[in-house]
Design goal:
It comes from Lepagella muris. This is Abi family protein. The protein is built from 12 helices and no strands. The protein is an all-alpha fold. The protein has 2 domains: 53 residues, no CATH class; 221 residues, no CATH class.
């Protein structure tokens, strides 16, 4: 079938939404929002109110302003999560650099013998070189002005400029499980498998955030393993779906408590949720009693 739909101007979009039974309280404000948020980005926040997913007609008493409120909630949520992921990413870089370099030397990242999967190692080596060579950091440029062998700078320089995704693959492909367990325990996790699982899911979540994609009610294909219990304050996992955002927020909150014992992540999250009562937290995988779980209680 050929695509025959034509582009619509902002007033035409508003007319279309009204014809689909969406209530618009302030025409001028709706127009302004459409000028700064494209319709198909906003459509992600309109869909929960749709009555018919084929005709896109809306349920009775559906308001355009509710979708706008949900959009700005999601925007603030992404910013909060991104800051928390940054803490984990920086801490992971530091620990991986420190422990592996002390044990295996300056150039362990390009030592094939230290990694389990040789293809992953080869792929990572190519990515490392690409990411290092395009880096504009002063310490990388200064290194290459002085040294030309080996092909990359020492790990304490190289791993500061590779992507989080590459860093995650390096960690997961390391064959020294006792060393990975040592790093995991510095995050108050009992074994490296949890650290690897959480790292993979956080990388995927960060990529989603980097593209400003809908975050709140998304189904996430890369899911963190949730332990039954942990040494620090944790949750009852019996009613927690691994593929919803809440599971990842729990992992991030736990990591934040380990990295920065004095932090306000959970207070900021609870304040954000309370300031947007229109948001259905169950769509994010939050159980009814989440606020009383040890991880989230004051």
């Amino acid at each position: 079938m050929d695509y025959i739909k034509q582009p619509l101007d902002y007033p035409q979009i508003i007319t279309m939404l009204k014809q689909r039974n969406l209530l618009i309280g302030n025409y001028g404000q709706a127009l302004e929002q459409l000028r700064i948020i494209s319709y198909f980005r906003l459509a992600n926040y309109l869909r929960p109110m749709e009555q018919d997913k084929v005709t896109h007609t809306f349920k009775p008493n559906s308001h355009f302003e509710n979708a706008i409120d949900l959009y700005y909630f999601d925007k603030k949520l992404r910013a909060l999560i991104f800051t928390t992921i940054q803490s984990f990413e920086v801490a992971l870089r530091s620990k991986l650099i420190h422990h592996c370099s002390l044990k295996y030397g300056a150039f362990w990242v390009i030592d094939r013998g230290l990694f389990s999967d040789k293809k992953i190692f080869s792929d990572c080596t190519i990515r490392i070189q690409q990411e290092v060579y395009r880096s504009k950091e002063d310490f990388i440029q200064e290194h290459f002005n002085k040294y030309d062998n080996p092909i990359v700078p020492p790990a304490w320089k190289t791993l500061e400029v590779v992507s989080f995704g590459t860093l995650s693959r390096i960690l997961c492909n390391l064959s020294d499980n006792p060393l990975k367990k040592k790093i995991a325990r510095e995050f108050n996790l009992p074994q490296h498998k949890y650290l690897e699982s959480w790292c993979k899911s956080v990388v995927a979540l960060r990529n989603n955030l980097a593209h400003h994609s809908r975050t709140w009610n998304r189904i996430y294909p890369i899911q963190p393993q949730l332990p039954q219990s942990l040494n620090g304050d944790w949750i009852d996992i019996s009613s927690v779906p691994n593929n919803k955002l809440y599971a990842q927020l729990c992992c991030l909150a736990y990591l934040q408590n380990t990295i920065h014992p004095i932090n306000d992540f959970k207070q900021q999250l609870k304040q954000l949720i309370s300031s947007h009562p229109n948001v259905d937290v169950a769509a994010m995988g939050f159980p009814a009693d989440w606020i009383n779980q040890p991880l989230w209680s004051d």
